[in-house]
Amino acid sequence: MASHRFDPTFTDKVVSAMGDKTEPRFKQLMTSLIRHVHDFARENELTIDEWMAGVQLMNWAGQMSDAKRNEGQLVCDVIGLESLVDEITFKLAEEATDAPTATAILGPFFRADTPFRSNGETVVRTIPKDGRGEIAFMSGKVVNYVTKAPLVNASVEVWQASTNGLYEQQDPEQEEFNLRGKFRTDAEGKYSFYCLRPTPYPVPDDGPAGKLLKMMDRHPFRPAHIHIIATCDGYKPLTTQIFDRKDPYLTNDSVFAVKDSLIVDFVERKNDPQARIELTYDVRLVPDGAKTSGV
Amino acid sequence: MASHRFDPTFTDKVVSAMGDKTEPRFKQLMTSLIRHVHDFARENELTIDEWMAGVQLMNWAGQMSDAKRNEGQLVCDVIGLESLVDEITFKLAEEATDAPTATAILGPFFRADTPFRSNGETVVRTIPKDGRGEIAFMSGKVVNYVTKAPLVNASVEVWQASTNGLYEQQDPEQEEFNLRGKFRTDAEGKYSFYCLRPTPYPVPDDGPAGKLLKMMDRHPFRPAHIHIIATCDGYKPLTTQIFDRKDPYLTNDSVFAVKDSLIVDFVERKNDPQARIELTYDVRLVPDGAKTSGV
User: Catechol dioxygenase N-terminal domain spans which residues (chains A, B) (predicted)?
Assistant: First the structure.
């Protein structure tokens, strides 16, 4: 690999500086990171000015981050890293026969204190003033992925942004817990509620992630989506997002989170004065201890 | 290279999202960075928790940085990146026939407003109270690298930390411009001054760089060194550091900046009541437009 004209011993010297007491997994990660970062610098003959521009951008991301905003995460998102780590985690969880919990991306707008609502209720507590709020009826079953049997008393939690691209905790105009709720499946495994047809929105582009997007000649938009967490005793929790097939940003999500299996179709709904469109979505949960080859 | 079991199209998708208006060099750097970062994640099957720990560490570095401290730079330093970029820059400058100015690392403690002093004067304006301050006489010539002719009226600027590891602007106990000065070479190309024999000191280890060092089971010390900038009309400026051969950290500098050619020997000095040791160091400057194969 030493097909460069720089000191061929340098990277080994940095790696071997690590002491015997380094935790093995951390040593593996730092060794790999140091090799990749050094290869990146050599392959591109990185200049001091370019390196320093990168340092200042990362410092800026940290300075912009606080309890409500994680700009370092967003910088990773726009280069696809969070979605890639999500894919890796998902694949490992799939392959494990006794994964304790499939960790997954919550995103920054999840709230642990979201209240339960009754099936058939609406999560739209504040009607968007821009007239772009289209009410949809969403319903489905939670089922055992292996046997297809309906799961009674499972929990389905959803949250979504309003038409202005803001989640309720970002927007003083929205009632608390607007566009979020938890639902329990009934005796037939069914859940149902009214929500908004989701709309695309830009990720915050006033910081380093936005600067990178502009410099890469890319737009900041995420395709319309609804966040879902489904849980049931005896089953692996599922955290996911579903995407509207008609969204113009479906093929060019600024954070690369769309998977084909997560694209859904809103269709016409008849004879319901509350909603003219509907979405049917069944959630399939994997029993604890089951090995699967695709969920 | 796709010897992994993850989506083989994902990285290409992220890279190809860059638009036509992306500046070509930036596109090259981002393409390479994205490929290396994704390979790093896949090769190590990076978990969400590990990725998020990295994000939080980088955010912390930014939050700790201000006008007086660049923690993002220090994180790069402890994994050897600044020294590697310095080597790359140095090699490119060597190879260029008409490099305008060899950019080089100044470090965070350079001051542009350092005053000129007379040859033979001392830069030690505040004597260290810990008794560890050993006065040294440093002298030499500035010469033309090609012809070896002495250069008259060249400038030699030096700065160094005190025995407590602090530069004067970090330490209210030190007089302003303590341990720094600029000197002009005389009619024979000579400069001279008194300074301290430099002492090793730790890089600041109360932040993410220090945390990484501890986790890598490494010490934070830099070997004793004196910073030098030499300039002369018609010659390429030289920015460098020289290191004391007797320093215990010479082979394990926490930021990997030592080069063999920069190691110097302090020797006994006789018949000088002001200093018992001395260092002779000639600075060789490359004429503008000259091509060299090693300076």
Answer: 24-96
Interval B211-266: pLDDT, tens = 999 999 999 999 999 999 999 999 988 888 899 999 999 999 999 988 888 899 99
Identity at B13, one-letter amino acid code: K
What's the whole-number mean pLDDT along residues B276-281? 97
Whether B99 has a pLDDT exceeding 60, the answer reads no
**Which amino acid belongs to residue A32?**
S
Q: Please give the pLDDT value at position B294.
A: 42
Q: Find tokens 């600041």 and name the residue.
A: B204
Question: CA of A52 to nearest chain B CA: how many angstroms apart?
Answer: 8
B110: chain A residues, CB-CB within 8 Å: none
Cβ contact, residue pair B50, A29, below 8 Å: yes
B218 CB neighbours in chain A (<8 A) are 17-19
* Interchain proximity A87–B10, CB inside 8 Å: yes
Strands B225-231 and A283-285: what pairing?
A: unpaired
Nearest to B277 by CA among B251, B250, B249, B246: B246
Which residue of B4, B79, B259, B293 is the best one to mutate when testing the A interface, meaning the one whose CB has the most A CBs within 10 A?
A: B79
Question: What DSSP element (H or E) covers A86?
Answer: helix A81-95
Q: What tens digit of pLDDT does each residue of B15-38 get?
A: 999 999 999 999 999 999 999 999
Residues of chain A with pLDDT under 50: 1, 98-104, 293-295
Contacts of B10 in chain A (CB under 8 A): 80, 83-84, 87, 256
* pLDDT over 90 (residue B102): no
Nearest chain B CA: its distance from A169 CA (Å): 22
A270 and chain B: CB distance < 8 Å anywhere? no
Judged by DSSP in three states, A50 sits in: helix
CB B242 within 8 A of CB B234: no
Nearest CA in chain B to A73: B55
Determine whether the interchain pair B22/A216 forms a contact, defined as Cβ–Cβ distance below 8 Å.
yes
pLDDT of B121 reads 98
Strand partners, A195: A136
Q: Which two tokens stand for residue A69?
A: 């905003």
- Considering only CB atoms, A72 lies closest to which of B40, B55, B84, namely B55
**C-alpha closest to that of B137 among B197, B223, B184, B226:** B197
pLDDT of the residue at A96: 58
Which residues neighbour A203 within 8 Å (Cβ) at sequence distance 6 or greater?
A74, A77, A78, A209, A210, A220, A221, A222, A254, A255
Which positions 218-237 of A are in contact with B (Cβ < 8 Å)? 218
**Residue A12 CB neighbours (<10 A):** 13
Residue A265 C-alpha, separation from nearest chain B C-alpha, in angstroms: 24
